[in-house]
């Protein structure tokens, strides 16, 4: 399996998925001298930038505020890179206000304790809706309730996700080490006698072989191996509204505002587009599909998988989601939420959720030659500058100490209804995409 020159180092690596996890891994492999003889291939079902990939969007929040200290540590390292040498032109440090009301306040105070343990610069505790309004420059009276608490960290920011991904892709392409293949993986090649993976079969029946296959297909990963009770795809809503240059000039200086109680957030606008979205429990899209690890097409499993505007170009966010985004905008910027200014675009973006929000970065417990790097759980993007290096550490059996017991393949599968979640999600639960779509259209 290993190349003769460097023991333990695979002579070929195949990465499935050119999203944040896959591309960052390819980059880290290119830069790491131990892999200088390793052939690296990245295969993705879509041309780059993947139109419906979770890593491609106008913006992603970059923050070190986590209720779990290891993520605060790693995000702090990543953020230093965003500020300095990792696509800094795509990073905007305008602050992030995290607010909550009710049970989510626990997550807010735990995050605050973590960031406070690291440093006490530029954070402002917000004790009331009036405080929040002033600090965030909101115009609304926030009629949704009083007694909201939160804090704002002026050293958090957001990144143009698509811009940063393009930046990284170009960097990787320039190194001339990675073969990029545009094709859809149909199946991972498993030898069931030896429980060994030797690569993948594409939908056109061609095979790509490798010593080590890294599955980084984001929310689609569950279509290629059985991740029941470990990862599930949840659809999150995003709505966009065009705004004028003058409005953008004002709003782009305001912090991002994330209300953890209902999960709604607004990232400052850029390129004439304002985005309102929901970090929530999301929609599930249960489908019965052939068991990915079985050669018997009659053996099926039921799992939640993404359904996007690539599958259905007319796809819009269900009314329920559009309405929540709208209500949030009305609460915070009523002057923008007038009837004459509808959202002109909406999309559903898929999280790869795990039971507790921890990533899944691990060898497959059963199949040799298969490594899994996914489970972004709605917070993976900020780690783009560093996650590939961490993934290589895990591949080499050097999982960072504070992530041991978090990133490994879980010991048991837990039914999804028993998942505890990461504590940061608000808003409606148990929504099924097809049902919400049916309500929106009056038909299925
Ligand atoms: C709406 C939304 C908001 C978010 N906000 C934030 C935020 O503010 N801050 C933050 O840090 N994180 C955020 N995240 C999370 C972050 O974006 C993700 O954790 C991260 O982008 C996941 O990257 P990935 O590589 O796992 O998945 P993806 O980027 O989806 O990449 C997977 C790739 O695999 C490819 N693929 C799938 N199936 C196949 C196949 N069969 N064959 C070949 N290729 C295949 C896909 O085409 C895709 O390009 C957000 C996510 C969403 C959806
Ligand atoms: C705010 O975020 C920065 C990272 O950008 C972090 O270093 C700092 O500790 C945070 N501030 C506080 C008061 O927690
Ligand atoms: C956040 O959401 C809660 C619950 O819906 C609400 O009471 C509160 O007013 C909201 N705060 C802001 C700033 O939107
Ligand atoms: C299948 O697709 C791959 C990637 O585009 C290509 O290299 C290969 O030649 C194709 N095989 C067939 C049989 O068409
Ligand atoms: C799958 O089911 C069909 C219909 O029941 C049957 O004809 C076929 O032989 C089965 N295939 C396998 C591989 O078992």
UniProtKB/TrEMBL annotation:
SUPFAM superfamilies: FAD/NAD(P)-binding domain. InterPro entries: FAD-dep_OxRdtase, FAD/NAD-bd_sf, MTOX. One of its GO terms (molecular function) is flavin adenine dinucleotide binding. Its cofactor is FAD. Residues 13-390 form the FAD dependent oxidoreductase domain. Coiled coil: none annotated. Keywords: FAD, Flavoprotein, Oxidoreductase. Pfam families: DAO (PF01266). It comes from the Eukaryota. Transmembrane segments: none annotated. Belongs to the MSOX/MTOX family. This is FAD dependent oxidoreductase. The lineage of its organism: Eukaryota, Fungi, Dikarya, Ascomycota, Pezizomycotina.
């Amino acid at each position: 399996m290993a190349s003769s020159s460097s023991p333990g180092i695979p002579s070929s690596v195949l990465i499935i998925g050119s999203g944040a996890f896959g591309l960052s891994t390819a980059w880290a492999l290119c830069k790491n001298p131990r892999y200088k003889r390793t052939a690296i291939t990245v295969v993705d079902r879509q041309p780059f930038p993947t139109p419906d990939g979770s890593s491609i969007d106008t913006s992603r929040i970059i923050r070190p505020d986590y209720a779990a200290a290891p993520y605060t540590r790693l995000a702090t390292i990543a953020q230093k890179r965003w500020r300095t040498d990792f696509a800094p032109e795509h990073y905007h440090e305008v602050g992030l206000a995290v607010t909550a009301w009710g049970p989510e306040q626990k997550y807010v105070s735990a995050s605050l304790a973590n960031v406070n343990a690291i440093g006490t610069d530029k954070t402002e505790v917000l004790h009331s809706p009036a405080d929040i309004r002033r600090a965030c420059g909101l115009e609304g009276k926030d009629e949704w309730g009083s007694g909201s608490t939160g804090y704002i960290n002026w050293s958090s920011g957001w990144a143009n996700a698509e811009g940063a991904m393009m930046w990284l892709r170009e960097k990787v392409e320039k190194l001339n080490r990675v073969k990029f293949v545009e094709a859809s993986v149909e199946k991972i090649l498993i030898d069931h006698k030896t429980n060994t993976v030797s690569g993948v079969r594409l939908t056109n029946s061609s095979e790509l072989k490798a010593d080590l296959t890294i599955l980084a297909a984001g929310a689609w990963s569950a279509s290629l191996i059985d991740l029941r009770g470990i990862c599930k795809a949840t659809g999150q809503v995003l709505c966009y509204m065009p705004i004028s240059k003058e409005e953008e000039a004002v709003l782009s200086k305001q912090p991002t505002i994330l209300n953890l109680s209902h999960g709604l957030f607004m990232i400052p606008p850029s390129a004439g587009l304002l985005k309102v979205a929901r970090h929530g429990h999301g929609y599930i899209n249960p489908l019965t599909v052939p068991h990915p690890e079985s050669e018997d097409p009659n053996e099926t499993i039921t799992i939640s998988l993404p359904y996007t505007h690539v599958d259905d170009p007319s796809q819009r966010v269900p009314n329920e989601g559009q309405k929540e985004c709208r209500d949030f905008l009305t609460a915070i910027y009523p002057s923008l939420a007038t009837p004459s200014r509808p959202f002109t675009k909406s999309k559903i973006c898929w999280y790869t959720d795990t039971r507790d929000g921890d990533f899944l970065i691990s060898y497959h417990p059963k199949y040799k030659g298969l490594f899994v790097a996914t489970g972004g759980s709605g917070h993976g993007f900020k780690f783009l500058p560093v996650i590939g290096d961490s993934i290589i550490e895990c591949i080499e059996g050097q999982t960072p100490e504070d992530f041991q017991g978090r990133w490994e393949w879980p010991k048991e599968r837990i039914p999804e209804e028993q998942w505890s979640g990461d504590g940061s999600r608000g808003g409606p639960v148990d929504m099924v995409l097809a049902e919400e779509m049916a309500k929106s259209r009056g038909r299925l």
